[in-house]
TrEMBL record, chain B:
The modification 4-aspartylphosphate is found at D201. Residues 148-267 form the Response regulatory domain. InterPro entries: Bact_response_regulator, Sig_transdc_resp-reg_receiver. This is Response regulator. It comes from the Bacteria. Keywords: Phosphoprotein.
Length: 215, 502
C-alpha cells in the first residue's frame, strides 16, 4: 500500500475480555501496529478517543452499554479522519453493508471470518480507504488454502506435517537425510505458498486439515 | 439498488489474453461487458438505459489513452461514471496528463488486488445511489467571501515569493502558506469558513503531503486537493489518486503563470462541491423531518392511551417533547437508506411497542404492592437494581413501582458510564425528595433521531426513559428533562408519603 512509515495507531473496543485479548495477541504480532487504547464499552471509547488519537478504531457492533454503530457514528462526527472497522456478530447483507459504508464505516468484518481477513482489512483501511472484503464468496473460504496445500510438492507436504507436529528442524533434516538449511528453505517455501507468516498458522491449518474440520 | 446488485462494468481491452487474465481475477466479483474498440463501447453507453457502475480501460499503452475518444465521451456525457485505468506500468507524465484532462478517476498497476478494485467500484456506486435520493441541483454558489488557497512546503522562501506573485496577479482568492503539514492543519482550523484549495509538497519533515491530503479528504471533503513534488514518484502519485482523491498532481518547479489557471479551476470545482454538499444536507434534513413526523404520529396513536392510563398523566407527549430537546447527529444518506430500504421504521414502532406493553404489565402487577418512599428505600432499590444477577426489563415481576423506577434509572446511568453513586438525593421539604444527577446523562440516539439500525441497548434505553416518566408520575412525582446535544440533565421529584395505591 502506502510507503508511510508511520505506525498504525489502533484503538480496540470489544466487550468480552477473552475475545479482546485473543484478537490483540494476534494483532500485536505485527510490529507496525501501535495499540493506543482499548475499551469494553462505547461510552468509555468516546471519552478516551480525544486523548488516545487513534488512526483506526476496531469496534464491535453489539456492545452492552450502547449500540456499537451509534458509537462509531459519533466517534466519526468528532474525528472525521478516524478509520473504523466494525465487527459484526453475523455476516452482513449487501444492503446493510451499503448503509454502514455510507455511515462512514470503512469496513465490516464478521465474527465468522478468519483472523487473516481482519488483519488484511485493517491494513487496507488505515489510510481512509473503504475496503469491501469477500462477503459473497462461497461458504468454504478455505478452499483456496486447501488447493494451495495440495499444490505443494510431496516433500513440502511431508515437511509441513513434521513441522506441524513440532518436530525440531534438526530431526527433520536427519530423518529426510538432508541439511538443516534445506529444511529451512522448504519451510520458507511452504509459508510463502500457503500465505502464512507464523508457525501457529501452519500448525492450526495442518491440525484442522488432518481433523477434517473446515478451517 | 447499486450495492445489492453485482456491479456492472464496461471494459475496453486491447488484447484478448490480458482480458481473460483480468476476468479470471475479477469475473466472479464483477459483471463485465468487454469491448474491443472505443466505438463499440461508446455505442453501448449510448444504447443502455442504465449506466454501468464503472468503465475500465485495460491497456498496455497508457499513453495512448490521453486522447481516447471513449474516455472523452464518458467524461463529457456521464460525469458520474467511475473511470479506472488498469495497466502494467503507468509513467508519471501520463498519469499527470490524464488527471489534468479529468479522463480517469482511479489508476491501478498490475498485479492488482481484486477486492480493492471492487471496493472502489462499490464506493462510487453508493455515492451515485445517494445522489438519487436527494438530486442536488449543482449550481455553484457565488462565494460569499474571498476563497482561500493554502500552499504547504518546507521551503518558506519559495512559497512566500510564489504567494506574493499570485496575489499580485489577481483579486479572486487569497493565498496562505504553511511550512509543514502540522502547521497547515493548525492553520486550517483557525481560518473562518472552509478552505477552498490546498496544494502540498509530498516530501516534508514530519507528516508527508499524501498523509495530509488523506486526512483532509475525510475532514474537509469540499477542499480541493493538489499534490506537488519535484521527485517523480509514481507510487506516491498513484496512491494519492486512488486513496487521496486528488484533483491534480503538479510537478515542480512551480510557475505562477501555470498555477493561476490551475487554482482558478480548482476554486470553481470547490464551489461546485460545496454547494452540492449544502444542498444535499438541507434536502436530507427535509426528508428526514417527514420520517420523524410519521414516527411521532405512530408512537402517539399506538401508545398514548395505555401509557397515559398507567401513569395517570399525559406522559407520552411529555416523553416525546423531552426527546425533541435532545439533538442528535444530523441525518445523512445512511439513515435515509436504512429508513426507506429496510424494515427499520416498522421494526422500531413494533418492537418499542411490544417492550413498552410488557413493562406496563409488570407495572400493573407491581402497583398492587405497597411502596414506602424515603431516602433509604430509594438507595436500597438503586443498589439492588445494579446487582449483576438482577435482570432488567425482564418478564420477572418487580416487587414495587419504586424498584421499576430505579431499574430504569440504572439502565440510563449505565448507558452513560455512570452509576447510582452519581445521583444526588435531597430532601427539600417534609413532603418531597429530589433526585438529580451530577453529570449529564448521555443519549446518542433516540426514537425521534436518525437511525441506522435497531439494537438492544438502544431499545432498552428508550423504554427505560419512558418508564422513568410513567413510574415517576404514577408515584405522584414529577420528572424534568433538560436536553442538550446528545445528553440531558435529569431532576426527579417524588412525594414523601406512601405511594398512591392502584
Amino acid at each position: 500500500m502506502s510507503q508511510s512509515n508511520r505506525k498504525l495507531r489502533l484503538y480496540v473496543t470489544i466487550g468480552q475480555r477473552l475475545f479482546r485479548d485473543s484478537l490483540l495477541f494476534q494483532l500485536l504480532l505485527h510490529s507496525d501496529i501501535d495499540l493506543v487504547g482499548e475499551s469494553e464499552s462505547g461510552i468509555d471509547t468516546l471519552n478516551r478517543l480525544e486523548s488516545a488519537k487513534p488512526g483506526v478504531l476496531i469496534i464491535e457492533e453489539n456492545l452492552l452499554d450502547n449500540d456499537g454503530l451509534t458509537i462509531a457514528e459519533n466517534a466519526l462526527s468528532m474525528h472525521p479522519t478516524l478509520s473504523i472497522l466494525l465487527i459484526s456478530d453475523t455476516p452482513v447483507s449487501a444492503s446493510r453493508l451499503g448503509i454502514y459504508l455510507e455511515a462512514g464505516i470503512k469496513a465490516v468484518v464478521s465474527k465468522h471470518q478468519p483472523i487473516q481477513d481482519l488483519v488484511k482489512t485493517l491494513f487496507c483501511i488505515r489510510n481512509g480507504q473503504v475496503y469491501v472484503g469477500a462477503w459473497n464468496k462461497p461458504d468454504t473460504p478455505s478452499q483456496g488454502l486447501v488447493n494451495a496445500y495440495h499444490a505443494l510438492s510431496g516433500r513440502e507436504r511431508e515437511v509441513a506435517q513434521m513441522i506441524a507436529s513440532r518436530t525440531p528442524i534438526k530431526e527433520i533434516a536427519a530423518q529426510l537425510g538432508v541439511s538443516c538449511k534445506t529444511v529451512h528453505s522448504y519451510k520458507d517455501r511452504i509459508f510463502i505458498k500457503l500465505g502464512f507468516e507464523r508457525l501457529p498458522e501452519l500448525i492450526l491449518f495442518m491440525k484442522r486439515h488432518h481433523n477434517g474440520a473446515a478451517a | 439498488m447499486a450495492i445489492t446488485e453485482e456491479p456492472q462494468i464496461f471494459l475496453r481491452y486491447e488484447s484478448k489474453q490480458a482480458l481473460a487474465a483480468l476476468e479470471g481475477e475479477l469475473g466472479n466479483k464483477l459483471k463485465i461487458d468487454a469491448f474491443e474498440t472505443d466505438q463499440a463501447a461508446i455505442a453501448a453507453l449510448k444504447e443502455r438505459s442504465v449506466l454501468p457502475h464503472a468503465l475500465f480501460i485495460l491497456t498496455s499503452q497508457p499513453s495512448s489513452q490521453t486522447n481516447s475518444p471513449l474516455l472523452t465521451h464518458a467524461r463529457d456525457t456521464h460525469p458520474d461514471l467511475l473511470k479506472i485505468l488498469i495497466s502494467d506500468a503507468v509513467p508519471l507524465d501520463v498519469l499527470v496528463s490524464l488527471l489534468e484532462k479529468r479522463l480517469i478517476d482511479r489508476c491501478f498497476e498490475q498485479p492488482l488486488d481484486p477486492d480493492l478494485v471492487r471496493s472502489h467500484v462499490l464506493t462510487s456506486a453508493l455515492a451515485r445511489k445517494s445522489n438519487e435520493y436527494v438530486m442536488p441541483e449543482v449550481k455553484p454558489k457565488a462565494a460569499s467571501e474571498v476563497p482561500t488557497v493554502l500552499i504547504v512546503d518546507d521551503e518558506p522562501t519559495a512559497t512566500k515569493y510564489l504567494a506574493r506573485q499570485l496575489e499580485r496577479m489577481q483579486n479572486d482568492f487569497r493565498v496562505l502558506c504553511a511550512d509543514s503539514a502540522e502547521q497547515a492543519l493548525k492553520l486550517i482550523q483557525s481560518i473562518s469558513g472552509t478552505l477552498a484549495v490546498i496544494m502540498t509538497d509530498q516530501r516534508m519533515p514530519g507528516m508527508q503531503g499524501k498523509e495530509l491530503l488523506d486526512e483532509l479528504k475525510q475532514s474537509h471533503p469540499a477542499t480541493v486537493r493538489i499534490l506537488t513534488s519535484a521527485y517523480g514518484e509514481v507510487n506516491v502519485a498513484l496512491d494519492a489518486v486512488n486513496e487521496g482523491g486528488i484533483f491534480r498532481y503538479q510537478k515542480k518547479p512551480w510557475r505562477a503563470t501555470e498555477l493561476l489557471p490551475l487554482f482558478q479551476e480548482a476554486i470553481a470545482r470547490h464551489l461546485t462541491l460545496a454547494s452540492a454538499r449544502e444542498n444535499t444536507l438541507s434536502q436530507l434534513e427535509h426528508q428526514f423531518n417527514g420520517l420523524r413526523d410519521k414516527r411521532r404520529e405512530l408512537l402517539l396513536s399506538n401508545l398514548s392511551e395505555p401509557v397515559d392510563t398507567a401513569a395517570g398523566a399525559p406522559v407520552m407527549s411529555r416523553f416525546l417533547q423531552a426527546l425533541d430537546t435532545i439533538p442528535c447527529l444530523f441525518a445523512n444518506t445512511s439513515h435515509l437508506r436504512a429508513s426507506l430500504e429496510t424494515s427499520l421504521e416498522n421494526d422500531l414502532i413494533q418492537q418499542f411497542d411490544e417492550q413498552v406493553h410488557r413493562q406496563l404489565k409488570r407495572l400493573q402487577v407491581a402497583a398492587s404492592m405497597h411502596t414506602e418512599i424515603d431516602g433509604a428505600a430509594i438507595r436500597a432499590a438503586l443498589q439492588r437494581s445494579e446487582e449483576p444477577e438482577y435482570e432488567h426489563g425482564s418478564n420477572a415481576p418487580a416487587s414495587s413501582i419504586l424498584l421499576m423506577l430505579c431499574e430504569a434509572l440504572t439502565t440510563l446511568l449505565t448507558a452513560s458510564g455512570l452509576s447510582w453513586r452519581s445521583l444526588n438525593l435531597n430532601q427539600t421539604s417534609e413532603h418531597s425528595l429530589i433526585l438529580s444527577c451530577e453529570a449529564p446523562l448521555k443519549l446518542y440516539a433516540h426514537l425521534l433521531a436518525p437511525l441506522t439500525r435497531l439494537s438492544r441497548p438502544f431499545l432498552d434505553q428508550q423504554v427505560a426513559l419512558l418508564l422513568l416518566f410513567v413510574s415517576t408520575y404514577r408515584l405522584g412525582g414529577e420528572l424534568q428533562i433538560r436536553g442538550a446535544t446528545q445528553s440531558y440533565n435529569l431532576v426527579l421529584a417524588l412525594p414523601l408519603a406512601n405511594s398512591p395505591e392502584a
